[in-house]
Amino acid sequence: MELAPYATSPDQSRGRLYPDFANIIRSPFQRDRDRLIHSSAFRRLDGKTQVFAYHEGKNYRTRLTHSIEVAQITRTLCKSLDLNEELGEAIALDHDLGHPPFGHAGERGLQKVMKKYGGFDHNVQALKIVTQLETHYPEFPGLNLTWETLEGTVKHNGPVAGTLNAYLKKFNKTFDLDLKNYPSLEAQIAANADDIAYLNHDIEDGFRAGFYTLEQMQELPFIREILNNLHKNCPTPDTNICIYAVTRSMIAKMVFDLLDNTKANLKAHNIKTPGDVRRHKGFLVCFSPKVEEEIRRLRSFLKEHFYTHTNVVRMDMKSQKIVEELFNVFMSDWKLLPDSERRFLSPRNSEKEIADVICTYIANMTDMCAIEEHQKLFDNLTRF
């Protein structure tokens, strides 16, 4: 497929931090995608919360299934805009790699305990994973991904401003990711595909959990319209058909709106090159005002009926407590850490250095790993 002039061409890639062999079969971005899929961190996403904790039910989304869904939507959008599908897919697969256990509750816990040590950011954690923690090759640390994939990992939500995380600041001095400017169109696509995937699939998961009914969902006019159209063709559909119709139709609507609005933006701003994309002061990939308003109402519905539901709030409270208590007990005595982590520390390490090792250890855990570690340390004195 011939790429648009503003797409990211593999031939124009800024390369990798370390010398690496070329591959005559796969493009640089294909290799990035494959390295991510084969990473331990990617496999661990299967055991990490999306909204429901991992152990609450196998039919709910996990970070892994969510990432696959985001990648699928990203490829569709990139292909329709003549962008680089392989780069978009790599960024989509990488975008949640740094999430700790228990989803946003776990992240809030790490942000709280790491506040005095420089904070916690899951995008920076993803960067640390792919540039340092994954050890697959003797020639270099990490996965040695291309500049474009690393840029999309850190910046898919936009430029990084303010005080930089210590790891990001140090890495950026070595391999400048152009933090002050906007990311590629492929990264912007992945960021919007993330919203499309999680909003629609949260609607489905919340419904299947019994948090609201189809009747309540019809408070939203666009959902009412979808169900009315469905009933015209299928007078007595079962609930499975109804919820699939809602998510399928809304995803399609968001995808087509994003395509049309992005094309209009590219034309209106006379975008000709990837450099034009990065220098533009704002996202070029975005929804129309009408669909933005529908998304705002959808978020509001989910917040009222799903994200603040008693079951979710209670699980979030317990999850955040587990993360905070793990961090605090390890900080009280880092020798409680397993040998795999203790080897990075000695009495000579500063408090911040110890905190960074503990934070990384917890962030890499799956939900069940965190629960089991917490039980070993707090719940049963006879358990080792």
In short:
With 384 residues, the protein is mainly α. The chain has helices at residues 28-37, 40-44, 63-80, 85-94, 103-113, 122-133, 147-155, 166-174, 185-208, 214-217, 221-233, 239-268, 274-279, 289-307, 310-332, 339-342, 351-363, 367-379.
What is the element string, with H for helices and E for strands? HHHHHHHHHHHHHHHHHH
Uncertain stretches of 5 or more adjacent residues: none
Sheet with most strands: none
Query: What is the β-strand count?
Result: 0
CATH topology-level name of the largest domain: Hypothetical protein af1432
CATH class of the largest domain: Mainly Alpha
Strand content: under 5%
Q: What quaternary form is this?
A: single chain
Overall structural domain count:
3
Identify the CATH homologous superfamily of the largest domain: Hypothetical protein af1432
Give the N-to-C terminal Cα separation.
56 Å
* Helix proportion range: 55-70%
- Nearest-integer average pLDDT: 93
Properties at a glance:
384 residues, mainly alpha, Hypothetical protein af1432, 3 domains
